[in-house]
Amino acid sequence: AVEAKIAPSMLSSDFANLASEAERMVNFGADWLHMDIMYYTLHGPDRLIGVNLQDGHFVPNLTIGAPVIASLRKHTKAYLDCHLMVTNPVDYVDQLGKAGASGFTFHVEVSKDNWQELVKEIKSKGMRPGVALKPGTPIEDVYPLVESENPVEMVLVMTVEPGFGGQKFIPDMMNKVRTLREKYPELDIEVDGGLGPSTIDEAATAGANCIVAGSSVFGAPDPAHVISLLRTSVNK
Ligand code: DX5
Ligand code: ZN
């Protein structure tokens, strides 16, 4: 069976104390640290599918970039699971590789015509490639990337509209997870958005094994307990 990976989303952490927040999460039992990279690029309007064409942003927010990943890397050996909510992920492969990112997950909506080259690039920089999809994007869109000779190694099914932490889990997305799990028994399937004690069983039963959780972990009086509860649910 696929292994459980519990990935607290550092978007819910105190960014001014990122190193100690990361250490705290690792000590609480986190397998991965989920890093939400929201950024914008000014070029490539032809690629802006499902994107706000007004300002080039993939999501209406700006968070961190490679310099912050590089700083954090100096303080932790943890697997840094980077989720790129940017319009031109290819622009960040080199710098994130150098910064010490572990996983590089790009969105299928903005990579329709260059994912093959992108996956190669990601691997050549020593990172693990993943593909993410927004709630409105059909699951079929990621099949070619999983079945390619040079495949992505994880699919991230967004369970909220990307952009912010603390939103409500969209249960309909479990159909995507179930379909994926039936088709690919060994694939890492990640869910992101609104995961916590009240939604984990649904996601785990559908077949998700990599669990991103921001507000439910950071907002809990006992984050270690929440992390262990998420893991138990995936493993049962
Ligand atoms: C949303 C991000 C998530 C976010 C999840 O765009 O991709 O990783 O931090 O936060 P919660 O768990 O609070 O929904
Ligand atoms: Zn994320």
UniProtKB/TrEMBL annotation:
Superkingdom of this protein's organism: Eukaryota
Protein name as it appears in the record: Uncharacterized protein
Organism: Cichorium intybus (Chicory)
